[in-house]
Amino acid sequence: MPGGRAGKLIAIGCELFTPSLTPEEIEASGWEPEDFEEVPCDVWPAHIRAFELACYLRRQLRTSFSGVLGFDLGPADAWMRRRGIPDSEQIVLEQQLADIEIGMLKTVNKKKD
Questions:
Q1: Each residue of 76-109: pLDDT tens digit?
Q2: In angstroms, rounded to a whole number, what is the distance separating the alpha carbons of residues 96 and 72?
Q3: What is the pTM of this model?
């Protein structure tokens, strides 16, 4: 996985869309639920807004018969506008969201064994 800014954002996308273990799976593994309470990836302060936007867009995906294509960005525009985010910040946020989307697509479209 790439490092730096893009690597951190891609990791966020992967973690946001990695299915959680069920209580039964946790019990079968011998671990306790408390072992899984930690945040699965670090979110840099500069990426907090992108993380919040990605969390909001988790339910706003464009799909086809071949799988997930990406985030539906119409709701992203409304989300940023409602929060009064200036245009210059929106451009940066869109770039960060694109990196998160890469990780999300790698995860959700991964072929099952």
A1: 999 999 999 999 999 999 999 999 999 999 888 8
A2: 15
A3: 0.71
Residues paired with residue 63 on neighbouring β-strands, in sequence order: 68
Digit-coded pLDDT (tens) for 23-33: 776 667 666 66
- What's the full length of the chain, in residues? 113
Point out which residues pair with 64 in neighbouring strands.
67
Residues 10 and 99 sit within 8 Å (Cβ to Cβ): yes
Closest alpha carbon to 24 in 13, 36, 33:
33
Q: Return contacts of 35-42, CB within 8 angstroms, 24+ apart.
A: 40/15, 41/8, 41/11, 41/12, 41/14, 41/15, 42/8, 42/11
Burial of 38 (0-12, 13-18, 19+ CB in 10 A): exposed
95: which 2 tokens? 């770039």
97, 47 Cβ separation under 8 angstroms: no
From residue 88, alpha-carbon distances to 28, 38, 93, 97 in Å are 49, 33, 9, 15
Cα–chain center distance at 40: 11
